[in-house]
């Protein structure tokens, strides 16, 4: 894994996490939290789309969409756990 790969993960995670934070109300994660949520969302979204045999395309746009879907699911789960 090169430095460029790591920077792309951080960029995609930041974009996806910030978008998910804007969509899911009730949780404010901040910049670092958005990056972490987006990166974790990328793993979750990639796994979900893989299990469903769905392809949303290649490239950075596909990565952002996959990470966004996973990040939204992650934030919804976190919001539900915080209410208990």
Features:
84 residues; 0% strand; single chain; mainly alpha
Question: What would you say this structure looks like, in words?
Answer:
This protein has 84 residues and is mostly helical. It contains three helices and no strands. The longest helix is centred in the C-terminal third of the chain and has 23 residues, at 60-82. It is globular, with a radius of gyration of 13 Å.
Give the termini separation.
40 Å
Biggest sheet character: none
Helix count equals: 3
Could you estimate the helical fraction of the residues in percent?
A: over 70%
Number of DSSP strand runs: 0
**Looking at the structure, what is the overall shape?**
globular
Work out the strand percent.
Answer: under 5%
Main structural class: mainly alpha
Global mean pLDDT: 90
Spans where pLDDT lies below 50 across 5 or more residues: none
Q: What is the N-to-C succession of helices and strands?
A: HHH
What is the radius of gyration? 13 Å
Total discrete domains: 1
């Amino acid at each position: 894994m090169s430095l460029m790969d790591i920077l792309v993960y951080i960029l995609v995670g930041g974009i996806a996490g910030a978008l998910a934070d804007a969509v899911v109300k009730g949780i404010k994660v901040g910049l670092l939290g958005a990056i972490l949520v987006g990166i974790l969302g990328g793993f979750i979204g990639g796994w979900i789309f893989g299990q469903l045999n769905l392809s949303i395309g290649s490239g950075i746009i596909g990565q952002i969409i996959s990470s966004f879907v996973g990040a939204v699911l992650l934030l919804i789960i976190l919001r539900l756990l915080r209410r208990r």
